[in-house]
Amino acid sequence: MTNHSVVARFAQARSDTSLVVLEGFHPLKHAIRFGAELLDVVTPNIEKVKKLAGELAPDVIDGLEDRLTEVSESVFEELAPVAPVTGVIAIAQRPSHSLNDILNDPTSAPLIYLEEPSNLGNVGAVIRVAAAAGAEGVLTSGVHDPWHAAAVRGAAGLHFAVPVLRVGTLPSCDRPLVALDPDGEPLQQSQIPERAILAFGTERGGLTPELLSKADARVSLPMRKGVSSLNLATAVAAVLYVWRLAD
Ligand SMILES: C[S@@+](CC[C@H](N)C(=O)[O-])C[C@H]1O[C@@H](n2cnc3c(N)ncnc32)[C@H](O)[C@@H]1O
Q1: How far is C-alpha 140 from the chain's CA centre?
Q2: Whose CA is nearest to atom 17 of ligand 1?
Q3: What architecture does CATH give domain 99-245?
Q4: Does 217 have pLDDT greater than 80?
Q5: Once rounded to an integer, what is the mean pLDDT over residues 64-85?
Q6: Which residues, in sequence order, are bridge partners of residue 180?
């Protein structure tokens, strides 16, 4: 690839909804570990990336070393708004998932639904904890693409470990719908039914009246008097670990 074509390729990948840009070693590491199809992996220093992989994730070296293309520092700096300090950036194919398959999966794990999240860092942190805790998947609504490079950075690339889909609105299905709301009844472990959809609201306004009216339960994480709410991703993490540790 010429310098010009590398820059054009990364710019084009950012607006192609079949592709994802992985900014930095950690997203790339998880992408390789969870079976991503890598298309381009670019660095200004191949030896430095191999050394980093040897230190942090030797298991991914085989999937990485033949894929690396070296470019100049100045070209590398044009490939992301802020050049990754780990000195590597990549383009991968997004995996395709069927919403019906996710909704109809008979296993007991809960599915996370984020209603119109506004902060891509929060979206990434939610995907990271959903992958770690073993959730069924993460669905989002609203204008933000959960596969945006900023969300992928926040999730350390764990989009490849758990299905992540943007949906228009929450589809109706046979899963119990549990609304997480600071004004709900205090959460008991027994209130997370098998195959639940756990719904979380937008950072500023919380869940919409439409979603609350459809919910089978409306529960809260108890907080000290005077505290209005938890951060969105913190709330998701707390609820998922209530579920996981109950097993
Ligand atoms: C930053 S909060 C939104 C705050 C909003 N003012 C409200 O009253 O819902 C974002 C989302 O995190 C979840 N959340 C935050 N704190 C919570 C708590 N203590 N109990 C249950 N859910 C909580 C809810 O789903 C909420 O919609």
Answers
A1: 10
A2: 182
A3: 3-Layer(aba) Sandwich (3.40)
A4: yes
A5: 95
A6: 219
